[in-house]
Design a protein that fits this description.
4-stranded parallel sheet; 14 strands; Rossmann fold; alpha/beta; single chain; 3 domains; 22 helices; globular; 6-stranded mixed sheet; binds iron/sulfur cluster
């Protein structure tokens, strides 16, 4: 059957149109009900908080060309937020997944212990067998260290980690108390780098920096860019259609499914930031021809800096959802502009889509018309709308935890975003061209790519949401309670802090930070896993027997 299909068959175009139709269709909730719900949410707040929060809650109106939403602002104290801290964004998200390196948390044990293995990012050791992902390294700072300083203890910990494990690199992550006592972790890292002859990189990612984990992503990007990228000075070129996967964290094995399909197409992944990530791959990242940006929020800094220094262009992709994956593969083929590659990509899409569709059809029958809330990440609340639409499920409320306005409105909003004191707290690096290794596509190529409109841009989540749908940035538990009671969604995609509150309402929650115990959900096979998982939750009769303890 697969050989008979072509990319222009009715089968693909019909299913894709249906998917886009679901995404862009108006909300099934009436505008009046939506406005009443917002009023109920806002009424509960004191005046000042109400004024602030109302700027973070927007009813989608596609007739407004550049609709705005406030984002990346401080959470009001007392409000229960989903957000994490800068330490979580730096060590937990971007740096932690490098499995052949040792990541030392400099601080009291709590931050380290409670962030130990919670992300479910997977790692396969390379030939050298180095795999430290499952360990928890901490200096376990105590009262004595807080009073007299913890730098000596830190250096001792680095030495010990080196002696026992011989990792490829050692990273140091400072937590809140360390920022307060002022331990010089950068000085310690420099000293230990010289002493041990391997990169020891310190990240000043104290939890209180910035307004959310987003600050930690930026700090991690800066550290990697300054201390790792380009460290391979011997390899001059990697042949073939080479890419880096940026902002893909291999939760539940996502990047393995993405790589499986890319490899089948003939596209080689040089490095991934930071799913199944290894130091030896990361230091070659500057040799890839393009950066494929999945999570725009957590990695766009690195993509921009690499373009300035090495001339590596970047492209926004989404590998979540079968049609989104097909679209992204075609964008990559357009970038390389090679007829044989384009043909191979089309063949792979036809083959993979046919297999996936055959299985998705049965789930779609049971899921079509169901409604979803999505509150996750800085890109996932956008990415997953495409996969839900593949299943005929409509996202009626969506919001990010830690995104900035450009993740909602698109990068054209960037010049209008005010840089406040919290953002200024995170260093913007001055980046210069590498005199020898700056290697952008030719002017003619860049012109072609600009005309194709596929490079260096992200249009954000808003344009993909239909009229009357609701966007809520940094949602609180109170807001979630009101919306669950009024809109009665069939499923909520969210994180661990909300999961059990949501399920006590009798609504299934799919954790989209760490996927609970499932995955992969990316790519063609991942979409089928996801459909099965969602079907089991949404169509389980269990939910009707649950009564919230507070009702
Ligand atoms: S906010 Fe500070 S104390 Fe809390 S987990 Fe983050 S780094 Fe640790």
């Amino acid at each position: 059957m697969t050989e008979k299909l072509s990319p222009t068959t009715d089968f693909e175009s019909v299913s894709q149109q249906a998917q886009q139709g679901v995404m862009l269709s108006p909300s099934p909730i009436s505008l009046e009900e939506t406005q009443d719900s917002i009023a109920e949410i806002i009424e509960a707040y004191p005046k000042k908080v109400a004024r602030k929060r109302s700027k973070h809650i927007v009813v989608r109106d596609p007739s407004i060309p550049e609709q705005e939403i406030n984002a990346n602002a401080r959470t009001t104290p007392g409000i229960i937020t989903q957000r994490g801290c800068a330490f979580a964004g730096c060590k937990g998200v971007v740096v932690g997944p490098f499995g052949d390196c040792v990541h030392i948390v400099h601080g009291p044990i709590g931050c380290s212990y409670y962030s130990w293995l919670t992300r479910r990012n997977q790692f396969k050791p390379r030939e050298d067998g180095k795999d430290f992902l499952h360990y928890c390294f901490s200096t376990d700072l105590n009262e004595h260290d807080v009073v007299f300083g913890g730098v000596n203890k830190l250096k001792q910990a680095v030495q010990e980690a080196y002696d026992i494990f011989q990792p490829k690199s050692i990273t140091i992550h400072s937590t809140c108390p360390v920022g307060l006592i002022g331990d010089d972790i950068q000085g310690a890292a420099r000293e230990m780098t010289q002493k041990l002859g391997l990169p020891v990189v310190a990240f000043n990612c104290e939890g209180y920096k910035g307004v959310s984990q987003s600050a930690g992503h930026h700090i991690a990007n800066n550290g990697f860019f300054q201390h790792w990228i380009g460290n391979d000075t011997e390899t001059e070129e990697i042949e073939g259609f080479t890419v880096n996967l940026m902002g893909e964290y291999n939760i539940g094995g996502d990047s393995w499914e993405i790589e499986r399909v890319l490899e089948k197409c003939g596209i080689k992944v040089v490095s991934t930031f930071s799913g199944d990530a290894s130091y030896d791959d990361a230091i070659k990242a500057h040799l890839a021809k393009i950066n494929l940006v999945m999570c725009h929020r957590s990695i766009n800094y690195m993509a921009n800096m690499m373009e300035e220094k090495y001339g590596t262009p970047w492209m926004k992709v989404n590998f979540i959802g079968v049609h989104a994956f097909a679209k992204s593969l075609r964008k990559i083929a357009k970038f390389f502009n090679d007829p044989a590659l384009t043909k191979r990509v089309e063949d792979v899409i036809v083959e993979e889509l046919a297999i996936a569709e055959a299985q998705l059809t049965q789930y779609r029958k049971r899921l079509e018309g169901k409604t979803v809330f999505l509150f996750v990440g800085g890109s996932r609340a956008h990415h997953y709308q495409e996969l839900f639409a593949d299943l005929g499920m409509k996202t009626i409320v969506a919001g990010y935890e830690f995104a900035h306005r450009d993740d909602y409105e698109g990068r054209q909003a960037l010049p209008n975003i005010k840089v406040d004191a919290d953002s200024r707290n995170i260093e913007e690096l001055d980046v210069e061209r590498d005199p020898e290794r700056y290697n952008p596509p030719s002017d003619a190529e860049m012109e072609r790519l600009r005309n194709e409109n596929i490079m260096n841009d992200y249009k954000g989540m808003m344009p993909d949401m239909g009229e009357g749908t609701l966007l809520v940035d940094n949602i609180s538990h109170h807001e979630l309670d009101v919306l669950i009671k009024r809109f009665k969604p069939d499923l909520i995609g969210s994180g661990i802090k909300d999961k059990y509150v949501i399920e006590k309402f009798g609504v299934p929650c799919k954790q989209l930070h760490n996927y609970d115990y499932g995955g992969p959900f990316a790519g063609f096979r991942g979409a089928v896993n996801f459909a099965k998982d969602v079907d089991l939750r949404v169509n389980s009769p269990t939910w009707q027997y649950i009564k919230a303890p507070w009702d």
